Amino acid sequence: MLYFIRHGETDDNRKNVWMGRKDLPLSQAGIDQAKAAAEQLAKLPIAIIMTSPLLRARQTADLIAQQHPRSPAVRIADWLTERDFGPYEGMKKTSANRIAMNASTSVESMESLTKRLAALKNVSNTQEHLLIVSHSGVYRCLVDSLGYQSTSNQCSLKNAEFVSLTLHCGKY
């Protein structure tokens, strides 16, 4: 089984700005969110946790591993890093900024992110009961471009929200 959780809240999440590769810690609210999610995840048979190398995701992964009865190993996977938003990091999330950002050549393209995340296929084929700790953009790419479906059919996740993922037949 494949599980996915978005990292807990940061100060930039609260400000509603893009952070991308900006390496921020969890806020106190984010720590509390991660601990609450960890209580729920402790009921699942997680064998391994793979996380983005960014601090907010690593902190979330570590809090989950510490509370889990199996104490699953936490492995850092660079390919789980959030999309590089370039000069748009720190900018307010608005419709106009999103359009400009997606048209910018200074921003990591969705095609590049999709290629990077294709590594999940190899990992998920060899790991049972895998928890991915990553970012909103990564989740959206898995669902929109790589054919994964969440148990809740959501196109985005709140901070520290988790779902089960399955690969839709015919994709990949």
Write the layout of secondary structure elements.
Layout: E1 2-6, H1 11-15, H2 28-41, E2 48-51, H3 55-67, E3 73-76, H4 95-103, H5 110-117, H6 119-126, E4 130-134, H7 136-144, E5 148-150, E6 162-167
Parallel strand pairs: 1-4, 2-3, 2-4
Antiparallel strand pairs: 1-6, 5-6
Helix pairs in contact: 2-3
Name its key features.
globular, alpha/beta, six-stranded mixed sheet, 7 helices
What do you see in this structure?
Helix 3 links the parallel strand 2 and strand 3 (73-76). The protein is α/β, with parallel strands linked by helices. Strands 3-2-4-1-6-5 form a six-stranded mixed beta sheet, with helices on both faces. The chain has helices at residues 11-15, 28-41, 55-67, 95-103, 110-117, 119-126, 136-144; strands spanning 2-6, 48-51, 73-76, 130-134, 148-150, 162-167. The protein has a single domain (2-167), classed as 3-Layer(aba) Sandwich (Rossmann fold), CATH 3.40.50.1240. The chain is globular and about 45 Å long. The protein contains seven helices and six strands, in the order E-H-H-E-H-E-H-H-H-E-H-E-E. Helix 2 packs across helix 3.
